[in-house]
Amino acid sequence: TSDKKTSLSVASLVPLLEMERQLINNLEEYTIDLKQKLQILESQIAAMRAENEKGYADPLAYVSNPLNGLSLIRRLNQDWVMWRKFMQKPVGVLQMRTLDLWLKKLPTNMDLYSACAGIIRIRDYYDLKLSDIIRGNLFRFKYNVSMSVPDLYAMGQHLFENDQFLCAIPLLQDVLQRIREEPFPMGPQLNIEELDVIKLLVQSYVQSQQYLQALSILEEGLELSSSDAFLIREKENALRLMKETPTKEKPTKKCTIVNKKHDIWKNTKECCKGTYKSNNRLMCYYNSSTTPFLRIAPFKTEQIGLDPYVVVFHDVLSPREISKLISLTDRKLVQAVTVNKKSFKEMVRTAKAHWVYRGYQELTKRIYRRIHDMSGFELADAENFQIVNYGIGGHYGEHKDYFNASSSFFTGYHRSQTKKYLGDRIATVLFYLSDVEQGGATVFPGISADSAYTVYPRAGTAAMWYNLHTDGLGDPTTLHVACPVIVGSKWVMTQWIRERSQIFARPCLEPSPSLNPS
Ligand SMILES: O=C(O)CCC(=O)C(=O)O
Ligand SMILES: [Fe+2]
């Protein structure tokens, strides 16, 4: 439905290209029909004109011949009725019907909204400027892609609708200038009305208390349409507001994001950008002891941080396993939801997720055994795998994986699921199923300066951490964030391990027994 905030995952954009190709083909077929009709007309007109010219030289002689006379009468009696029908018959009925079938499957307003929001999110997390982003300057690299005028206009409208007036202004100014230089950037059919842009700009200036600019652009609008009721009203409004507002109050002129000033947000951004100083007393080692099997096949293990304890296992999934896992999700990805409803509305998680059922097949069983070897945990009661593909600027905002019975997020559903059956999420194993060209790191912004970590996605590796203290209470330092993807299609697979069946694997009060190297 239209008001649900969904986001298209990057992988699901691939079939859209094919869809677009079909739509273009369909439109091309329409031109073929048009051309055929034109050809019929041209040849018939030539023939009719030739006959008419024949009589025109000496009309009386022409009509005196009864064959000519009859023909003239018949032509005028019959043919023009036929031509009227010909002119009336629409071209492209078939193609229009085809188009109608496609229209229902095309991205919705909400999809466009999510895409715009994704771009804004990239700006905010990586401290980029929209003026750079729209020119293809994405974080560390410059790409040979830039936004077209209609794309810019869509972004400007999005910012406007989200009250980011100061940010909308430069984009809308850009649009205005460019449609004045070239009125039909996408042909007259997809015209952007100059007056519409002006109206958005006027409102943006008024909203950001830049009344002089508002008035000057208003004059430009009134030149185009002197009796436009909206413009006349806005002009009175702007003049009144200008008088009422004390002059010494200087409005900010820079497009900046408000709120979000707290330390976790600052740390998150540093971590996402990879500019955080990392602890250099960590090590890499071969883990050959968590389970007996590891003596013949130890895991390459890298410590990411000690408190909370986070490790990364390298090369734990093969490319073949990864492509099989991803193919399990084909066409089955649905909007990922979070435990609390509010976060869903606010786009805390912008990805498509798919649950892969336990014991589904040899492949997943094998991976369960591997997770047992990595963690030492019993997986009899583990959750299903969740495979996720992120969207444009796709992210997962700050959250903890545990439920904590006392937490307010702990809704009825989860209470029964956690307490009675499986217990809380004692640990998380996060597999990366893809590299990501830029962005998309998993970060632990930490509560103190030296417990902020960044894990970069690399196909085949897996991060693992404990969500609970040994007394079973949630460890708040495990708060983490999936940073927005800048460029790439990020795939992950999570395994949340439940507490209940770990009574022998991880008895209480023993600190992190299976991961620390001895
Ligand atoms: O995708 C990521 O990097 C993190 C995902 C995550 O935190 C989760 O699914 O709980
Ligand atoms: Fe998580």
Topology record:
Elements: H1 14-57, H2 59-64, H3 66-88, H4 93-103, H5 109-125, H6 130-133, E1 137-138, E2 141-142, H7 149-161, H8 165-181, H9 194-207, H10 211-224, H11 229-244, H12 263-273, E3 284-287, E4 299-306, E5 309-314, H13 319-328, E6 334-335, H14 341-345, E7 351-356, H15 362-375, E8 385-390, E9 396-399, H16 412-422, E10 425-432, E11 438-439, E12 442-444, E13 453-455, E14 462-466, E15 480-482, E16 485-487, E17 491-498
Antiparallel strand pairs: 1-2, 3-4, 4-5, 5-14, 6-7, 7-8, 8-17, 9-15, 10-14, 10-17, 11-16, 12-13, 12-15
Helix pairs in contact: 1-4, 5-7, 7-8, 8-9, 9-10, 9-11, 10-11
Bound molecules: 2-oxoglutaric acid and fe (ii) ion.
Residues 396, 401, 430, 442, 480, 482, 492, 494 line the site of 2-oxoglutaric acid (AKG).
Subcellular location: Endoplasmic reticulum lumen
Pfam families: 2OG-FeII_Oxy_3, P4Ha_N
Keywords: Coiled coil, Dioxygenase, Endoplasmic reticulum, Glycoprotein, Iron, Metal-binding, Oxidoreductase, Signal, Vitamin C
